[in-house]
Amino acid sequence: MPAMSCFVDAAVAPPPGYPWSSSLPAPETFSGVPSLTNTTTSITSSAATIDQPHWSPSHSAALYQIDCWGAPYFSVNSSGDISVRPYGTATLPHQEIDLLKVVKKASDPKSSGGLGLQLPLIVRFPDVLKNRLESLQSAFDFAIQTQGYESHYQGVYPVKCNQDRFVVEDIVKFGSQFRFGLEAGSKPELLLTMSCLCKGSPEALLVCNGFKDAEYISLALVARKLLLNTVIVLEQEEELDLVIELSRKLAVRPVIGVRAKLRTKHSGHFGSTSGEKGKFGLTTTQILRVVKQLEQSGMLDCLQLLHFHIGSQIPSTALLGDGVGEAAQIYCELVRLGACMRVIDIGGGLGIDYDGSKSAESDISVSYGLQEYAAAVVEAVRFVCDRKSVKHPVICSESGRAIVSHHSILIFEAVSASVNDVPPISSNGLKYLVEGLTEDGRADYLNLSAAANRGEYDTCLLYADQLKQRCVEQFKEGSLGIEQLAAVDGLCDLVSKEIGASNPIRTYNVNLSIFTSIPDFWGIGQLFPIVPIHRLDQRPGVRGMLSDLTCDSDGKIDKFIGGESSLPLHELEGDGGRYYLGMFLGGAYEEALGGVHNLFGGPSVVRVSQSDGPHSFAVTRAVPGPSCSDVLRVMQHEPELMFQTLKHRAEEFVHDGGGMTMAHALARSFHNMPYLTSSCCLTAAASNNNGYYHCNDNSYGTPADSATGEDDQWSYCCA
């Protein structure tokens, strides 16, 4: 191996003042990468896929496990792009949507027929949202019919999962035929659910969860006066006093539910809200006191719903059935005590298989599908109620994660990548390095050379590391120059690379804030599928981790589904070609939880529906992400005053007409999004987020078309 021989050859002519033998044996060329279990980077099962002699989109689908976590909504098409199947298994081939074409339509400049939106970008597919809701309803309908269950399923969507106006309105519209309702956990959520359900089914439930004060309870009672099917769920025993008092004052007969603390608990991260010591709900003792107080107040008939929550991401139907069975027993006891029970609300917990493993042993997977989930719930409730001769209740669930996760995709761009090329090291450079070494350092160098000649690769690494540490100490003491320190870094990198022990993982810098757009990864280590959305007909040549734009060491993604610490990626194209990555299954929680760390705001958003014609789609709404002005206002700054201050300073200190030009540039910066921009297309949100600006070299902050309304569309047909 010539590169390895380089520094060995340097030992043949020892540096001045350092006597060592020049009769060392000639170095042997390595015949391959040695097998070093303690030094080489572990290669995962994906290596078998990457080693395929001929590459095709199907190989990429297998490598990224797209058919496991993505079915039935995502696949790889013959062009090597991610394809969206908006109707799930019912999607016909000509109805599939090429995700890359959606991104290009959204991000290309308006002069090229695009919408001029800046990345990062959230792409919503309301057709997928509708299919998820219909699939959930169908699963329960099938279980009810096949098991002879004598009531029906009537779900609610917990808006905390994603409070976006159009998401909530879509769910109300799509779910109206199923009497699908909403769940609120705070006063603003209650206000938005009240407003949205005015257009929903009159039978749809409005479930009021969360901690409550007098204003919250009054709002819920007002909703009942507005003929909304509102249920006030008691999370704390003392809330009952307020409900009784305010209902009498407002002359409203309330419908009341109780949230029970079950003994059933799952051990995963999301199980912390369940069990006897869970954050929410009433113990059996407290439930009995509630029943007694309602009876004494002549309001026991108002108690009609039992609610419980085992925890999000319930891993197995065995645990699910156990918890539902325990709750059904409490339900039957409440019936026995005289309550006019009607609904059992099983809460959330319907999980998402984020990694496609169908495992019950993981926080990011579940071992069941919609059909198995619904069957387990119906069977558990039916069994207990039949044993107690209790009428079958309406089954309600709050399956927010399962409804909204699939419909939203986060698109972001890799803008650069680290390079691991080791620069060549000349004999003169090595001699210069050795001349500055201490006696111990020169000994390490000699030992390294000898170990290389003998082919003792582990020993090479030992001496290389030892040499490097000595040089660092010399540099700190001031006895070694920066050129020599760089030379020893190159030498040690060369040693690692030549014997196969170097770290092949590159860092891909992405135009994104993880804290804003993927906060669950940073906060709880939640993993989401992340894959390139194009070039999947090409073999990925490198592995990489992702580093975001924030000035924070936590702003990186170095854990991926499948237990991987890196992601197979393609080389970035040097001719201006763009490399897009997508994060999937992130439609729940991420947008609501995201902050403004480093003042990076949220992404741009487009809503895309399947349209008439082969592989056609329509963008029904396009909204740019928050501008720099918008995120500054979040922290109580006043962008208009800031701009005026900077403008006056530019006019004062910059002459020859340059002040006005600088002021225009400043205005553009305030109006643009905080993320990195392409020189050909600079977009920005208006301060009220109802419009967007298109900026180029000749236009600074000039308003263009406003964000489109629900009925406006840009149709884009692709042959």
What key attributes describe this structure?
eight-stranded parallel beta sheet, disordered C terminus, TIM Barrel, eleven-stranded mixed beta sheet, 719 residues, alpha/beta
Describe what is shown at a glance.
This protein has 719 residues and is α/β, with parallel strands linked by helices. Helix content is 38%, strand content 15%.
What does it look like?
It comes from Davidia involucrata. This is Arginine decarboxylase. InterPro entries: Ala_racemase/Decarboxylase_C (IPR009006), Arg_decrbxlase (IPR002985), De-COase2_CS (IPR022657), De-COase2_N (IPR022644), De-COase2_pyr-phos_BS (IPR022653), Orn/DAP/Arg_de-COase (IPR000183), PLP-binding_barrel (IPR029066). Pathway: Amine and polyamine biosynthesis; agmatine biosynthesis; agmatine from L-arginine: step 1/1. The active site is at residue 551. This protein has 719 residues and is α/β, with parallel strands linked by helices. Among the domains are: 127-402, Alpha-Beta Barrel (TIM Barrel); 427-499; 628-675. Helix content is 38%, strand content 15%. It contains 24 helices and 25 strands. Strands 4, 13, 14, 15, 16, 17, 18, 19, 20, 21 and 25 form an 11-stranded mixed beta sheet that branches. Strands 5-6-7-8-9-10-11-12 form an 8-stranded parallel beta sheet. Strand 16 (542-547) and strand 17 form a beta hairpin. Helix 9 crosses helix 10 and helix 16 packs antiparallel against helix 17. The two termini are 52 Å apart. The model is unreliable at 5-44 and 679-719 (pLDDT under 50).
